[in-house]
Amino acid sequence: MKNFTVAGKAESPFLSWLTEGMINEFELAGYRYHDEPVDSIHLVFNLIDPKNPRHYRRNSQSTFVVSVVENDEESENVFKSAYPYLVRSLANHLIYISHQAEDTTLYFLTPEQGFYSKSYHREEDTALFFRHIFERLEPLASSQLVIDNNFYEDLFDGLAEGNEVTEKMALGGKKLDDMNLLPTPFPIEEYLSSRDMRHLKKLYGIGGLSYGNLSSRENNDHFWMSASGIDKSNMKTVGRDMLYITGYDSEKNAMNISIPPETTPKRASVDAIEHWMIYKEHPDVGAIVHIHAWMDGVEPTPVNYPCGTIQLAETVAGLVRESADPSRAVIGLKNHGLTITGTDLDDIFHRIEGRIIPRVPMS
């Protein structure tokens, strides 16, 4: 049975009402509520103080933490004001509550910069309101991350220094920058202590937040992919900037990566499991680009699953399979961006040039 708890203290009547309503809704759906955290907890609502946000210290990657913060201060840019709370509290998701004169708005934020809202009107049907929150959060909370890496120092001469494929990837990264498709990496180190950074890296292998990635097929079974947390406009080094993905270890729930001997590698992009599924099923796919942007006529996935989850990978792979031409598909990721397949990187850039909409629609 899936279980959950609430950490922190509700400091206002609204937050107490909201917390009680979420507890009731998740219990109705079969979740077991614990007054105190247990070792194997699936979901935590972490009520944080805006003046001193504290994180819930997980014991497992499988614990999904939703931080909840209430703030009455006016903000010209709600996303800019709210996103640091997501990072500071080391959360998988954030509910940012903003009160106005007549209404209250709940803003939902994801680490991938998904940002959408739900307003609460005092005369609104309370049951429908909490059902909406549940339907937003439960698919995410029950999803399974694939973010661990198995590194093998078996990449020797011939690939250890890169090849024509990695050269084209480096040019592709510069192309993304030229098209203004590489948002500035979020300065996570400015918001977390060195202790919290160590905890985050140990739990999730995260050393920084950057957005967008690209990959290219090397052969039937292996592909190259940009690493996590790097400047993708300046990719040079194999094992640091570009990683050689050789497979997925289902027993360890980790991506297999070959690196040159005596290399301290960067982590693989969390989207590696998604790219692996697509390459494995579609031999005509030669490259994949993921961007935080949009194009007209693209339908989004029904759920904004977190990056790096089996559920998102399976959803995107399924949409590629159903597309008219899997080797040249454009898949919309709800409140997130696009995954684009092509016969090679040149094919992808040729098809998207002049068609990109910088702002991702949020709903």
Q: Write the CATH homologous superfamily of the largest domain.
A: Class II aldolase/adducin N-terminal domain
Task: Characterize the biggest β-sheet.
Answer: 8 strands, mixed
Question: Mind telling me the C-alpha Rg?
Answer: 21 Å
CATH names the topology of the largest domain as: L-fuculose-1-phosphate Aldolase
In round numbers, the mean pLDDT is 90
**Low-confidence spans: pLDDT under 50, at least 5 residues?**
none
Structural shape: globular
> Portion of residues in helices?
25-40%
Count all strands and give the number. Answer: 15
Specify the CATH architecture of the largest domain: 3-Layer(aba) Sandwich
- Separate helix tally: 8
- β content, as a range? 15-25%
Structural class from helices and strands? Answer: alpha/beta
Q: Identify the strand order in the major beta sheet.
A: 8-12-11-10-9-13-15-14
CATH class assignment of the largest domain: Alpha Beta
